[in-house]
Amino acid sequence: MIDMYLKWPLQARSVVENWGKYRVSGDFNEVVIVGMGGSGIVGDYIQVLSASTGSLPVYVVKSHLLPGFIDEKSLLIAVSYSGNTLETLLAVENAISRGLKPVIVSSGGLLRSKAEKHGLLYIPLPQGLLPRVSLPSMLYSILALLDSSGYSIVTSSEARDSVVLMEREINSGLSVVDELTKLLYRGLFENRLIIIATHTPLEALALRGKNEFNENSKIIVKVDVAPEWMHNDIVGYEALVSLKYSVVEIVDPGDTVGVKLVKFMDEVYRQHDSETYTLYLNGETLLEKLLYGSLILGLAGAKLAALRGIDPAETRSIVQYKKQAYTIFGIENK
Ligand code: PA5
Known about the structure:
The protein is built from 11 helices and 9 strands. It is α/β, with parallel strands linked by helices. The longest helix is centred in the middle third of the chain and has 34 residues, at 156-189.
């Protein structure tokens, strides 16, 4: 698993080398990205990237339910590593019934069959990975599609630069991962809950970190995002019920307000016997910072699993849920 993360630059590079291979034509009003879990997070990343540089609004759907406003003027992109996630399949079927031609991004599965049946644009992902470790393939594939279709959020040269950043930072990142993992591991023996704290606009990265620790290390994690945290969560510390925390603070060092907001949070955490670790994001652009942070958090999740003697790759309870999902949704398993 750790090896799969270390190969992220290679994964990203293979998409960047083929930038421009896929495109859609159409005059769209918005981009809608549908997906769950390790695939759905790609939608969150594209949404935050587009907020600073994109020309269209980006909506993220992590559900079988599509919002009512979605119509043929929506560019809908469904991403599912396996291609078999029921919620994503149902949303795609719903989109097709509304006259849309969703773009499918998967490594195969039922979504690929659906793409073939309905003549949809299909973007293949590399086989043999796990959804969460195929983040670069999914993310860069969609960014490349949007750029080549006239709805650029990230250009090919910015994507190329971000690959160089990953290549450059991977070695020094490993010592950050070691330090962070040690703190979190020690905290588990003291019954500390892990919190990932950050400042806006990095909430998607904090969510990604939470998901990584959930799935790789099999632990519950809370996400705190400033400045919203200052308007609700903070009050919970006024009469705290005895919980102790290990806090991973994700900070963009170039964001002076963000730095001060997280410092404010840090003081509150420390007053309540918390251990904190600040992860400063390397990189120039938001894409580079998101990738750097994702790499560190993914590796830390996998290393924490190794220290706990747990297999990071296996996600038994998701498999169990997926088996029952057809019954829950009242759908016959095809
Ligand atoms: O990371 C994981 O393994 C999960 O969160 C999956 O991504 C999630 O269950 C959805 O599956 P898929 O990505 O194959 O659509």
